[in-house]
Write a structure and sequence with these properties.
The protein is mostly helical and 305 residues long. The chain is globular. It is built from 12 helices and no strands. Helices cover 78% and strands 0% of the residues. It has one domain.
């Protein structure tokens, strides 16, 4: 039973690592035609409606009002604020760089969890892992041949940090709220994020719906991938992790996603993968391994107490 649980844990982690790492490229293709906030609204509204109807067909009952509000609130923080910030920033920066900025998430999660939720200090190995991951991020951001020729836009970067903070808060708060069954939680969270994104799009992108006339086959395929893989598959795996894995372990996806985004950028759109990027990727993955072992050490120490 324990081995089966461990396999399921790592299967969901790999899904979040790879699938969500690839969604940065999917968003890039979609926003070539559609505004970013509208793209996010379509992605989560369509996905949420289909997924919720699927749960009803499976025999699930309609959740209570309290459960609806709880799941929608977390969805607004995660798929709403968090993904809107990412989608907006991708319009100004390379996908790998945006994914890299999201890599601040583990630090926010560990800090917020300690001060507001768990009140338990992270193990020294977790702290070292976070530090190594941040070093890897610094190597990628360190001024050099590429970055010296391109100024990082401060406002989109600031929005990504805000999105990371709200995502971390929502992820940590979720297990403490009265939620529907997992599948319905996923659906309602997507709906909450989609409604928030639509409202923001109506205010900030008043002419956004006119972009529908310019949609191409590539735009439709990008949206389909974001809805099916990014929302159904990836988001479901993430919701499962929120309730079955330590926050520090769940947050490690933010370290792996930049690596996946860079590799896909290199393979799909011929973005150059420099030696520095390869070295930084290795450092980032080392940080993930350390955080993982730190989480196991903390769990064992807790059991001994």
């Amino acid at each position: 039973m324990q081995q089966s649980s461990s396999v399921k844990l790592w299967a969901n982690l790999v899904i979040v690592y790879v699938v969500w790492g690839s969604t940065f490229l999917g968003v890039r293709y979609a926003i070539e035609v559609l505004p970013p906030l509208l793209t996010n609204a379509i992605r989560f509204l369509v996905g949420g409606v289909i997924f919720f109807l699927f749960t009803l067909l499976r025999g699930y009952s309609v959740p209570s009002v309290k459960q609806w509000l709880s799941a929608a609130w977390i969805g607004m923080l995660l798929s709403g604020v968090g993904n809107c910030a990412v989608a907006y920033a991708i319009g100004f920066m390379p996908t790998g760089l945006v994914a890299l900025l999201v890599a601040t998430l583990p630090g926010w999660m560990v800090g917020l969890d300690y001060y507001f939720f768990g009140k338990q200090k992270p193990s020294w190995l977790t702290v070292v892992g976070l530090g190594v991951g941040l070093i890897g991020m610094y190597i990628l951001l360190n001024p050099g041949e590429n970055l010296s020729q391109r100024e990082i836009p401060l406002f989109p970067a600031f929005l990504v940090f805000i999105g990371s903070i709200t995502w971390a808060w929502g992820s940590l708060q979720s297990p403490y709220l009265d939620m529907p069954p997992q599948m319905q939680t996923t659906a309602i969270q997507m709906l909450g994020g989609g409604i928030f994104s639509l409202i923001m799009s109506l205010f900030l992108e008043p002419n956004g719906f006119k972009a529908f006339d310019n949609m191409t086959h590539q735009t439709y395929m990008a949206l389909l991938y974001l809805i099916v893989m990014g929302s159904f598959v990836g988001y479901s795996a993430y919701v499962w992790l929120l309730h079955h894995a330590a926050p520090s372990l769940t947050a490690t996806y933010a370290y792996v996603n930049p690596v996946v985004a860079m590799v896909l950028g290199w393979l799909v759109v011929n973005e150059k993968l420099s030696t520095r990027s390869l070295v930084a990727s290795a450092v980032v993955l080392t940080g993930v391994v350390l955080i993982t072992f730190g989480r196991r050490a903390s769990a064992k120490a807790g059991n001994l107490r």
